[in-house]
């Protein structure tokens, strides 16, 4: 058979050259592989050392907080026999371990029990002294009082309405006819004057989203009101709402899930006001001519507290109400409600500070102020 003239057979020398080249390439690849493996091992060792240090730091922090928790348990056992809530809070607030633990956000949120109202960075509650320009502030960690004279247009009457706002501000509203004075106290205790609303006093205000809702109160001395209004913090305008089914003073209220739960001194019913539908619905029977408080516990329950009467709890669907305890007597509430360290605080007309303990379901009288 004749050879293909286009094909040239390699010589033995050429074959040897190709083999040498291939062998050289294999050796080079082997060397590169060894270098890559060494580099990888070095980086792996470095990362392992870094992660080990971080793991050790996490373990150290974990042990630290385990010790803190043990300390809190020991402290709790020491104060468990104390019958005074004031003594308990003073003991806890001066314990270094507890102070360190309270710096952890998720633990603080757990203690605060998920209240829906905006959280204040200060542990204070405030109320006006009757017929003065003096604002009484009480530190709930040590129960020390501070009095501040404000630059208001007129003296605040004894039944001014107050509502805590975000950023340590307080909404104030209420006066006799002809108009209702409206202003905000900012974080530096400056007064921001707003448009006057309807004459009203001796009732409560509730913040929901960007509006403040007010129900009932005294229209004049001796004349109860059934009006309901809301004030927009965005537009600084008042708007009338559907009137209350029955006129009443001291209408306590709580906003939750597009509804406002409310009941007044002159009401025998607990009502819910629908923000969406602008109407009311009746629920359970309550005591007539009785001061009341409505406050929130955890995210699934609310409490209706009657002065000198009973505590009623609901799982927040408005139907599964149950009696959970009895309560001592308290007067008209002149402050906003304040959640602090698992209790809801308020000041009554006689400047008595009360705390409703959400865990133990009872009301304590803490201290009377001048």
UniProtKB/TrEMBL annotation:
<protein>
    <recommendedName>
        <fullName>Kelch motif family protein</fullName>
    </recommendedName>
</protein>
<dbReference type="InterPro" id="IPR015915">
    <property type="entry name" value="Kelch-typ_b-propeller"/>
</dbReference>
<dbReference type="InterPro" id="IPR011043">
    <property type="entry name" value="Gal_Oxase/kelch_b-propeller"/>
</dbReference>
């Amino acid at each position: 058979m004749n050879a293909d003239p286009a094909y040239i057979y390699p010589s033995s020398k050429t074959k040897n050259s190709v083999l040498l080249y291939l062998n050289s390439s294999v050796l080079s690849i082997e060397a590169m592989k060894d270098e890559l493996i060494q580099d990888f091992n070095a980086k792996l060792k470095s990362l392992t050392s870094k992660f080990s240090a971080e793991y050790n730091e996490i373990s150290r922090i974990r042990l630290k907080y385990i010790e803190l928790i043990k300390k809190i348990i020991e402290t709790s056992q020491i104060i468990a026999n104390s019958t005074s809530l004031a003594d308990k809070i003073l003991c806890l607030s001066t314990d270094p371990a507890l102070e360190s633990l309270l710096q952890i956000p998720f633990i603080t949120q757990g203690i605060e029990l998920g209240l829906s109202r905006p959280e204040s960075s200060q542990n204070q509650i405030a109320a006006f002294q009757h017929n003065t320009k003096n604002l009484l502030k009480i530190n709930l960690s040590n129960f020390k009082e501070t009095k501040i004279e404000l630059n208001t247009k007129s003296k605040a009457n004894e039944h001014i309405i107050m509502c805590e706002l975000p950023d340590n501000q307080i909404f104030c509203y209420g006066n006799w006819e002809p108009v209702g004075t409206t202003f905000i106290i900012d974080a530096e205790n400056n007064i921001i004057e707003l448009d006057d609303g309807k004459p009203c006093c001796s009732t409560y205000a509730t913040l929901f989203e960007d509006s403040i809702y007010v129900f009932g109160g005294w229209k004049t001395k001796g004349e109860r009101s059934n009006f309901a209004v809301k004030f927009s913090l965005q537009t600084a305008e008042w708007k009338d709402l559907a009137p209350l089914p029955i006129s009443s003073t001291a209408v306590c209220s709580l906003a939750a899930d597009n509804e406002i739960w409310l009941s007044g001194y002159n009401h025998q019913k607990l009502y819910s006001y629908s923000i969406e539908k602008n109407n009311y619905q009746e629920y359970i029977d309550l005591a007539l001519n009785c001061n009341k408080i409505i406050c929130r516990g955890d995210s699934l329950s609310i409490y209706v507290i009657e002065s000198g009467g009973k505590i009623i709890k609901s799982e927040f669907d408005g139907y599964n109400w149950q009696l959970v305890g009895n309560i001592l007597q308290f007067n008209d509430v002149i402050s906003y409600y304040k959640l602090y360290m698992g209790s809801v605080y308020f000041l009554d007309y006689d400047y008595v500070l009360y705390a409703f303990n959400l865990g133990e379901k009872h009301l304590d009288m803490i201290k009377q102020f001048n």
